């Protein structure tokens, strides 16, 4: 078992299209400093998908918003490095980031009904996204391009659909339109923030397939933000599990799903019912609520909710665990328990519950 | 659309009929008679009866009402102690006080009110919504605080206070502006504007305060909407995001409020007209009530109701034009 001395350096792939190093995002508020993201490091290659998993308030959406540079610089303190195609977004001027937004990196949001403008036709909204980065394109060319994209994402009768308003679309079609809008400029990086949460289960699978399909075609790097481990297991190559603004476990999708090491990851896995396993097995919910990002618990932020806190004397309550190698290459975990203890606990308590089975 | 319009027009006419009946009944519920008001304190009962008869007040209420309605649609003939007066449709009768046909008095007073309200509306829609939007975009800044602080001040000011102060400062003390007066725009547009500048400013500023606060709140809410975030994520410049995406959505509810306000103001802005001694329909209505001048009361009430009802229909139709999600039916 190797212990890396510099956990941040260990996980960044210098070849990757997106490289995030030690990202910290803080919002000063009247109640105190909100540490929304507190030292996150990851990278995504083109053609690869990274799943970022965590509950609400774990910092996953804030992370994605910082990659697009969407936080108000007057009200946000950002440090670290976000390198998109070799350009560092952190500290970049708004006008420069704006030119990258929607062109090099694009985003799909959770609720396509509220994310599309209710007063403009779908085709117009997509054409607008194209035109802003292709100022020389004619209005007609932009519209043609919009119809093309609608067709590409599998919307029947794209010509007619482009002339309709978002409320005339079904949920799944709306999310397809949203994807068409995000991909209209062939971005190398696509961030999907809970893209299937607001959709019917049957439509979810279609949307995920579409994303995979488009990824193969455009070789884009995708970040899939979700709390749904089913989605992660279906589309992700790598997974980053976040808790309280910090990474708690990271590794390949197989490592995280099959050999999870962090009690929080266990909790996520054991609390989701499995379609394939024994339907009568009890689910094990994670007790309690996500912590306040203004006042994180001392020591391991997960300690108030962890069934195994205090296994190593007082360390859970006094010392913040660092990401360390969890045994296999690329698999890292931030937990004070020893590898052997974790193996034993996992086999005894978790392996039979929820999707963990 | 057509079905909607027919339905709404039917409803509107029913409303107007109901209002006219209620006004008629209320008028006769007052324990006094127009004849006493007109004839004065030392009038003999015979004289009062004579006056009442000449005004048609000796007839039963139902007859009076049907005569009134007949006059509106077909015209009617008045027989005032041998003097025959033909009153063509739409006949709203003759003023008890001045014997002027009520339609003439409406034609005289309505343009005054219309001029005051339209000008003031231009002021409060531009100043109010403009300031509110700018304040929302610079939320928390010095500009925002000053603008919103000032709007609280203006919103809690009354027309007679602000109007009086402005009259004193701009007209009586310094003579910067002429005494407010009404000149028809067709006669002399410059005199029309300069004569109404003060009421425009007064009514405009007080309403601006309200509209600034409304539009600021509306804009701040809209700026947090997902579709605004989407617009930014597309890489649109801030200006485009604010104008094309946020403003467009934020302004929709303001259209409703402005439309309904316009409707109610066109029925008369009594205090503004009184403060600046302009003979608008609001003052005419107030005087008519004080004088128990039934034909004029009926006319002004119906005109006010007509504007409110009409503006409501227009606002609803406008809404369907602005917001594609709204279907009229």
Q: Describe it for me?
A:
The complex is a heterodimer of chains A (about 350) and B (about 325). Chain A is an alpha/beta fold. Helix content of chain A is about 35%, strand content about 20%. Chain A is built from 14 helices and 12 strands. An 8-stranded mixed β-sheet of chain A has the order 6-7-8-3-9-10-12-11, sandwiched between helices. In chain A, helix 5 (about 120-135) crosses helix 6 (about 140-150) and helix 8 (about 170-185) packs parallel to helix 9. The longest helix of chain A has 18 residues, at about 200-220. Chain A starts with 6 loop residues before the first helix and ends in a 7-residue tail after the last helix. By secondary structure, chain B is mainly α. Chain B folds into 2 domains: about 1-100, no CATH class; about 105-320, MetI-like fold (Orthogonal Bundle). Chain B is built from 14 helices and 2 strands, in the order ααααββαααααααααα. Chain B has helices at about 1-30, 35-40, 45-55, 60-75, 100-135, 140-155, 160-175, 190-225, 225-235, 240-250, 250-265, 270-275, 280-290, 295-320, and strands at about 75-80, 85. Chain B has a two-stranded antiparallel sheet. In chain B, strand 1 (about 75-80) and strand 2 form a beta hairpin. The relative contact order of chain B is 0.13. The mean pLDDT of chain B is about 90. Classes of the chains: A alpha/beta (about 350), B mainly alpha (about 325). Chains A and B meet through helix 3 and helix 5 of A and helix 9 and helix 10 of B.
């Amino acid at each position: 078992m190797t212990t890396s001395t510099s956990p941040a350096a260990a996980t960044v792939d210098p070849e990757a299209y997106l490289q995030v190093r030690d990202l910290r995002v803080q919002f000063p508020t009247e109640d105190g400093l909100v540490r929304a993201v507190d030292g996150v490091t990851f990278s995504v290659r083109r053609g690869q998908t990274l799943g970022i998993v965590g509950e609400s308030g774990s910092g996953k959406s804030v992370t994605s918003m910082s990659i697009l540079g969407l936080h108000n610089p007057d009200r946000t303190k950002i440090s670290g490095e976000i390198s998109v195609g070799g350009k560092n977004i952190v500290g970049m001027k708004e006008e420069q980031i704006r030119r990258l937004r929607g062109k090099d990196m694009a985003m799909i949001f959770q609720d396509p009904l509220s994310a599309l403008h209710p007063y403009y036709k779908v085709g117009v909204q997509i054409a607008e996204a194209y035109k802003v980065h292709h100022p020389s394109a004619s209005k007609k060319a932009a519209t043609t391009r919009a119809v093309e994209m609608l067709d590409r994402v599998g919307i029947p009768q794209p010509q007619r659909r482009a002339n309709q308003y978002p409320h005339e679309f079904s949920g799944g079609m709306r999310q397809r339109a949203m994807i068409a809008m995000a991909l209209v400029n062939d971005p190398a990086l696509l961030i999907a923030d809970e893209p299937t949460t607001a959709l019917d289960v049957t439509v979810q699978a279609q949307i995920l397939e579409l994303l995979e399909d488009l990824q193969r075609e455009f070789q884009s790097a995708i970040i899939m933000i979700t709390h749904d481990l089913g989605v992660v297991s279906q589309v992700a190559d790598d997974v980053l599990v976040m808790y309280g603004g910090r990474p708690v476990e990271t590794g390949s999708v197989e490592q995280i799903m099959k050999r999870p090491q962090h009690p929080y990851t266990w909790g996520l896995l054991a609390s989701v019912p499995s379609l394939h396993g024994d339907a009568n097995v009890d689910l094990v919910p994670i007790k309690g609520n996500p912590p306040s990002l203004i006042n994180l618990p001392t020591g391991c932020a997960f300690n108030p909710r962890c069934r195994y806190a205090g296994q190593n004397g007082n360390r859970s309550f006094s010392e913040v665990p660092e990401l360390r190698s969890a045994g296999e290459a690329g698999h890292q975990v931030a937990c004070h328990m020893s590898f052997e203890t974790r193996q034993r606990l996992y086999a005894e308590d978790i392996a039979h519950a929820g999707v963990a089975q | 659309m057509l079905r909607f319009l027919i339905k709404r027009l039917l409803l509107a006419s029913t409303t107007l009929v109901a209002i006219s009946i209620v006004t008629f009944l209320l008028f006769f519920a007052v324990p006094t008679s127009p004849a006493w008001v007109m004839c004065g304190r030392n009038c003999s009962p015979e004289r009062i009866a004579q006056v009442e008869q000449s005004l048609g007040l000796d007839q039963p209420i139902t007859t009076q009402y049907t005569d009134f309605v007949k006059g509106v649609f077909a015209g009617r003939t008045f027989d005032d102690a041998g003097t025959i007066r033909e009153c063509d449709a739409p006949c709203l009768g003759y003023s008890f006080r001045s014997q002027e046909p009520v339609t003439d008095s409406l034609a005289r007073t309505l343009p005054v009110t219309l001029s005051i309200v339209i000008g003031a509306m231009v002021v409060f829609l531009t100043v109010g919504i403009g300031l509110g939007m700018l304040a929302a975009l610079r939320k928390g800044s010095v500009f925002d605080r000053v603008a919103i602080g000032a709007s609280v001040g203006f919103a809690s000011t009354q027309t007679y206070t602000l109007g009086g102060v402005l009259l004193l400062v701009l007209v009586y003390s310094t003579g910067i502006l002429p005494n407010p007066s009404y000149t028809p725009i067709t006669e002399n547009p410059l005199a029309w504007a300069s004569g109404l500048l003060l009421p425009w400013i007064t009514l405009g500023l007080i309403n601006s305060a309200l509209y600034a606060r409304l539009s600021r709140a509306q804009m701040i809410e809209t700026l947090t909407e997902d579709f605004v975030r989407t617009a930014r994520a597309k890489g649109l410049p801030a200006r485009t995001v604010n104008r094309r995406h946020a403003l467009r959505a934020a302004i929709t509810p303001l259209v409703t409020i402005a439309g309904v306000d316009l409707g109610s103001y066109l029925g008369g802005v009594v205090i503004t007209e009184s403060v600046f001694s302009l003979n608008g329909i609001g003052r005419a209505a107030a005087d008519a009530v004080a004088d128990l001048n039934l034909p004029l009361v009926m006319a002004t009430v119906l005109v006010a109701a007509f504007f409110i009802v009409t503006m409501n229909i227009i606002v609803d139709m406008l809404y369907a034009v602005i917001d594609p999600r709204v279907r009229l039916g």
